[in-house]
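ARCHIVE CARD
Drawer: 12
Card no.: 0347
Subject: one protein chain, sequence and derived structure
Cross-reference: see card 0346
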Amino acid sequence: MEYCQNGDLQKYIDKMRQENKIINENNFFDFAAQIASGLSLIHGRKIIHRDLKPANIFLSGQGRLKIGDFGLSKVIDEKDYAHTVAGTRSYLSPEILNKWSYTEKVDMWSFGICLYILAELTHPFDTKNEISLVTSIVQQQPAPFVNLKNQVAQNLIISLLSKDSAKRPNADDILQIPEIAIQH
């Protein structure tokens, strides 16, 4: 196991928020490429992480991102679906919150939440309490972008936050986006 001396992505986001900074496009696409690459590897092994969030994405001393904390992960086969409600509520996909069966696409939803927070420094479904958060995730569209100006990045996040899991790209699809492929 590798020690990640630079903490986690949540710490990075908190520091940016504290310093009133926003992420530059190059770093955004670099981070997106690294996370997508990790998800591609995980999903290729038929593992659903189920708790992807900035606090579970670690920064190594070389500035590389590593996905960690597989405590809630589940191995599924090609015909299997997961059914258990597992994960951090603010990163759960609509299908989990609706208690529907689900696939690795729940991780892609969580990835979209992570990227939105990385770019905007706030949650796309920022609400006052847990009940309204769940309702917002299931029924509402994410908050409009304020900081993120790059259309490719916006489209990526919007596609990841599709309420219809079948319309969400998988990690390999994301790695084909030119702005991400160049980083990978």
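Annotation on reverse: The domain at 9-181 is CATH 1.10.510.10 (Transferase(Phosphotransferase); domain 1). The chain has eight helices and four strands.
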